């Protein structure tokens, strides 16, 4: 398995996202060759929190769901559990955390998509000018930032290795204005990850094809999209040094 990553260790802004020359390299980051799987004398247990990005069984038409693919792909010495719930928003994930298994060793979070979806009606409400539109959007983002920050704080308090996912934006039929809005929701996710020093799985760079999305509901990952997600997630688990506080963006 291979992945690309941009690295953050908190010096300058360009160094934070792993770009030595942003004008020549753009935002592709640096190439990361995964290390061999780390052996452990105890079982590693990854728990998935969040929404239908992880809880996608209802949308794969009998194919493998993300949790199935993950359990099959994880190396010896690992297991995975699904606590994510289809439809949950950031403010609902704490209810999932209450069910955390006692032997959990690693955490993964995918949240924010339903928060953005819940703002759709407000986004489609007519306003007299662009400043009014930005003002309305700002209020939505402030609410999401408050909820997402509280969620990340609660997960970090568990003192276990954590990775977070961005919201993908190649959903078939997604309009350009909504992609712009999603970029601002993703900015909150990325800023939170940088502050906390946790790795990010950037789904925008992974689920880029129509086949990555469910034919039953295009905002959900298909088995094809889930396989890509799982491949990169296992790469993070095998190569990222969670002991060092720093934000790597993997894609």
Please tell me the total number of domains: 1
Given helix and strand content, the structural type is alpha/beta
Beta-strand fraction estimate? 5-15%
Task: Name the helix and strand elements from N-terminus to C-terminus, one letter apiece.
Answer: EHHEEHEHEHHHEHEHE
- The poorly predicted ranges are 8-39
Helix fraction, binned, reads 25-40%
DSSP summary, beta strand count: 8
Quick one: biggest sheet?
8 strands, mixed
Helix segment count? 9
Q: Strands across the major sheet, in which order?
A: 2-1-8-7-6-5-3-4
Task: Give your account of this protein's structure.
The structure is a single chain. Helix 3 (66-73) crosses helix 9 (223-239) and helix 7 (130-156) packs parallel to helix 8 (176-196). The chain has a single domain, classed as Rossmann fold (3-Layer(aba) Sandwich), CATH 3.40.50. It is built from nine helices and eight strands. The protein has an eight-stranded mixed beta sheet. The model is unreliable at 8-39 (pLDDT under 50). The longest helix is centred in the middle third of the chain and has 27 residues, at 130-156. By secondary structure, it is an alpha/beta fold.
Give a summary of the structure in a few sentences.
The chain is α/β, with parallel strands linked by helices. 38% of the residues lie in helices and 14% in strands.
Task: Give the topology.
Layout: E1 3-8, H1 13-16, H2 22-25, E2 30-32, E3 44-50, H3 66-73, E4 78-82, H4 93-97, E5 106-110, H5 113-118, H6 120-123, H7 130-156, E6 162-165, H8 176-196, E7 200-201, H9 223-239, E8 247-250
Parallel strand pairs: 3-4, 3-5, 5-6, 6-7, 7-8
Antiparallel strand pairs: 1-2, 1-8
Helix pairs in contact: 3-9, 7-8
């Amino acid at each position: 398995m291979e992945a690309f990553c941009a690295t953050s260790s908190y010096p300058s802004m360009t160094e934070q996202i792993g770009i030595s020359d942003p004008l020549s390299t753009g935002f592709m980051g640096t190439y990361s060759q995964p290390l061999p799987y780390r052996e452990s004398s105890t079982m590693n247990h990854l728990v998935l929190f969040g929404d239908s990005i992880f809880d996608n069984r209802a949308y794969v038409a009998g194919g493998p769901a993300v949790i199935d693919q993950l359990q099959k792909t994880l190396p010896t010495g690992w297991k995975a559990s699904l606590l994510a719930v289809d439809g949950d928003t950031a403010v609902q994930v704490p209810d999932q955390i209450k069910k955390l298994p006692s032997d959990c060793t690693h955490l993964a979070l995918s949240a924010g998509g339903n928060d953005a979806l819940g703002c759709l009606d407000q986004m489609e409400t007519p306003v007299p000018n662009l400043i009014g539109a930005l003002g309305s959007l700002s209020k939505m983002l402030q609410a999401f930032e408050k909820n997402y920050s509280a969620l990340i704080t609660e997960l970090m308090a568990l003192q276990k290795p954590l990775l977070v996912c961005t919201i993908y934006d190649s959903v078939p039929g997604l309009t350009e204005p909504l992609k712009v809005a999603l970029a601002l929701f993703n900015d909150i996710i990325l800023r939170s990850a940088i502050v906390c020093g946790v790795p990010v799985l950037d789904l925008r760079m992974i689920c880029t094809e129509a086949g990555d999305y469910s034919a039953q509901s295009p905002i959900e990952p298909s088995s094809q999209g889930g396989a890509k997600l799982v491949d990169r997630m296992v790469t993070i688990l095998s190569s990222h040094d969670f002991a060092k506080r720093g934000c790597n963006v993997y894609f």
